């Protein structure tokens, strides 16, 4: 599997006619872990949704390519097959479909007809990953996310990521609502998946997740664009000083976007 190369150029996106993203530039390569941090309402989840092809978000301008291929031309399915994966901030429940069935269908959809994973291999992998994530085996046979606690949903998103082995994993606020033990387990899952042929885009409001997953690059989003980039020390600075100090430095009064009609 070749290392991925995701490139976002001058991306402008609107929702319901409201401009949200206003010129995002970002380049992510295999082996790298990028973190996007920022206050709430600055466009982080919008970027994740646009990468996956959520129909609500309208690209007004700019380009997204994966290995030189135009991502914006691809359907959601094609994006998944190309290796893009999104762990959502608010994972959906799927009534009537068990976790195991869902995962097997998703894996086979990605592998394509004639190349389906054997049942034995699937079960072996599922058991192994669930053990690593300290998940009760019973969760394999429960309906996807139905009745799961916030923390269980997040762990389940990481299980999906581990089973699907994406080339570019986008994790949106995977740390929200997790206690410190669950956070460590989620980080263990992510770290176990770090590889030269895989890249991560980790979206988080707080620095604490980055104590357990050391990013190569840290970006701060405000007003729908990346206003500052650096290394792990940038996250530490934000932890120490908060977002207000950076806002003052950049002369930004209101970091949010799209709030006004
Ligand atoms: N589906 C949507 N419908 C309407 N407004 C949206 C939608 N998604 C995002 N927005 C708006 O875009 C802005 C940025 O939101 P979001 O990307 O979720 O920010 P963040 O993830 O940084 O908190 C907010 O003002 C939000 O209300
Ligand atoms: Mg968000």
From TrEMBL:
GO terms for molecular function: ATP binding; ATP hydrolysis activity. It comes from the Bacteria. Keywords: ATP-binding, Nucleotide-binding. The keyword DNA-binding does not apply. The keyword ATP-binding applies. InterPro entries: AAA+_ATPase, ABC_transporter-like_ATP-bd, ABC_transporter-like_CS, FeS-cluster_ATPase_SufC, P-loop_NTPase. Residues 6-248 form the ABC transporter domain. Belongs to the ABC transporter superfamily. Ycf16 family. This is Vegetative protein 296.
């Amino acid at each position: 599997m070749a290392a991925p190369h995701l490139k976002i150029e001058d991306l402008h996106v609107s929702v319901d006619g409201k401009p949200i993203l206003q010129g995002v530039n970002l380049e992510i390569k295999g082996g790298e872990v990028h973190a996007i941090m920022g206050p709430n309402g600055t466009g982080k989840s919008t970027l994740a949704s646009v990468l996956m092809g959520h129909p609500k978000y309208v690209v007004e301008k700019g380009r997204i390519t994966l290995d030189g291929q135009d991502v914006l031309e691809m359907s959601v399915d094609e994006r998944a097959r190309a290796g893009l994966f999104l762990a959502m901030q608010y994972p959906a429940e799927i009534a009537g479909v068990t976790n195991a069935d869902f995962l097997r269908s998703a894996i086979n959809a990605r592998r394509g007809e004639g190349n389906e994973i054997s049942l034995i291999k699937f079960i072996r992998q599922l058991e192994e990953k669930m053990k690593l994530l300290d998940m009760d085996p019973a969760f394999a046979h429960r309906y996807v996310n139905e009745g799961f606690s916030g923390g269980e949903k997040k762990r389940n998103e990481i299980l999906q990521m581990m089973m699907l082995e994406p080339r570019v994993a986008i994790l949106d606020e995977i740390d929200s609502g997790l206690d410190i033990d669950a956070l460590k387990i989620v980080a263990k899952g992510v770290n176990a998946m770090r590889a030269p042929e895989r890249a991560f885009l980790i979206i988080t409001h707080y620095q604490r997740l980055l104590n357990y997953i050391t990013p190569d690059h840290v970006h701060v989003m405000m007003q729908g664009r990346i206003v500052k980039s650096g290394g792990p020390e940038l996250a530490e600075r934000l932890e120490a000083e908060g977002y207000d100090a950076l806002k003052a430095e950049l002369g930004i009064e209101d970091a949010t976007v799209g709030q006004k009609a």
